[in-house]
Amino acid sequence: MDALVSLPDNRVIRQNGLASKTSLEGFLANFETYLVDRANYFDPAVRDLAVQALTSGGKRIRPALVHACGAGNLAVSENLTKAAAIVEFVHVATLVHDDVLDDASIRRDRQTVYADRGATAAILLGDALFAHALEMASEFPENEVCRWVAAATRRTCSGEIQQSFLRGDFTLTSARYRQIIEAKTAELFSVSCRLGTHVAGLDDATSALACDFGRRLGLAYQIYDDLADVFGREADFGKSLGRDLAHGKVTLPTITLFPKLSKVEASRLHETLFHSGREPNSEIVLEMVDLMRTHGVHEECRELLDEELSAIGNTLSEFTDDTIARHLDDLRQGIVSRTAILLG
Amino acid sequence: MDALVSLPDNRVIRQNGLASKTSLEGFLANFETYLVDRANYFDPAVRDLAVQALTSGGKRIRPALVHACGAGNLAVSENLTKAAAIVEFVHVATLVHDDVLDDASIRRDRQTVYADRGATAAILLGDALFAHALEMASEFPENEVCRWVAAATRRTCSGEIQQSFLRGDFTLTSARYRQIIEAKTAELFSVSCRLGTHVAGLDDATSALACDFGRRLGLAYQIYDDLADVFGREADFGKSLGRDLAHGKVTLPTITLFPKLSKVEASRLHETLFHSGREPNSEIVLEMVDLMRTHGVHEECRELLDEELSAIGNTLSEFTDDTIARHLDDLRQGIVSRTAILLG
Question: What is the tally of structural domains in chain B?
Answer without folding.
Answer: 1
